[in-house]
Amino acid sequence: MRNQVLERLRTSPQAAPVVKDFLARGEEELRRLHLANCSGREICGAYTLLVDEILRGLFTFKKEELKCDDPMTLVAIGGYGRGELNIRSDIDLMLLHGRKLTPAIEDLTQQMLYVLWDTGLDLAFSIRSLSECIALAKDDLKTMTAVLDLRFIDGDEKLFQSLHSGARKHLFNKGRVGNFVRDKVEETRQRHERYGGSVYILEPNVKEGEGGLRDLHTAMWVVK
């Protein structure tokens, strides 16, 4: 598929202005669509695709420029992974690599981040190996939950599939999945105590309170 960002980067002396201009034009188009009564879900979906195109173009361009062919994959996490990225929300992003973090991968990551920070995007970025992802998730419910929302953006698709199958094998096997569900139910109970356990609260927390967005997400995670 044609990537407009990549095409423009290949003919430009500087990457940051290209990415910044593409983002600004995309956001202006989304503003027009919003004023034309497009739904919030449609706008979030479209913004997710806009950020996807920017990241794919920049990732491919930097790999070409630095001649980096080490196995690695860009992975979306959280709301971005679910395709629910609101405009100017924080973007949870992970660079997944093989067993070894090479200097070439570190250099590519730094150069990508410099460009993305210059656009004003709010990034939450991590670099992890397959084994690190699984090990971290085993001992942390939040990280384990985040694994369910991972989405492939670009790079070595086999590496991403290895993470997906590894998560099923080590995190969500028959021996562990029951504990995960119980932990999420208890987490929900505690969250309701903090943010409101009734849908009849005068000023409910529409994300964390009972019947809010996080309850919907919890149901989706349990189904997954």
Q: If you had to describe this structure to a student in words, what would you say it looks like?
A:
By secondary structure, this protein is α+β, with helices and mostly antiparallel strands. It is 61% helix and 11% strand. It is built from ten helices and four strands. The protein has helices at 4-9, 15-35, 40-66, 78-81, 103-118, 130-138, 141-147, 157-170, 174-195, 213-223, and strands at residues 72-76, 91-97, 123-129, 151-155. Strand 2 (91-97), helix 5 (103-118) and strand 3 (123-129) form a beta-alpha-beta unit. It is flat and about 55 Å long. 24% of the residues are buried. The mean pLDDT is 94.
Strand/helix succession? HHHEHEHEHHEHHH
What is the percentage of strand-forming residues? 5-15%
Spatial strand order of the main sheet: 3-2-1-4
Give me the secondary-structure category: alpha+beta
Overall number of strands: 4
Largest sheet: 4 strands, mixed
Uncertain stretches: none
Number of helices: 10
Overall mean pLDDT: 94
Key phrases:
224 residues, alpha+beta, 61% helix
Q: What's the topology here?
A:
Blueprint: H1 4-9, H2 15-35, H3 40-66, E1 72-76, H4 78-81, E2 91-97, H5 103-118, E3 123-129, H6 130-138, H7 141-147, E4 151-155, H8 157-170, H9 174-195, H10 213-223
Parallel strand pairs: 2-3
Antiparallel strand pairs: 1-2, 1-4
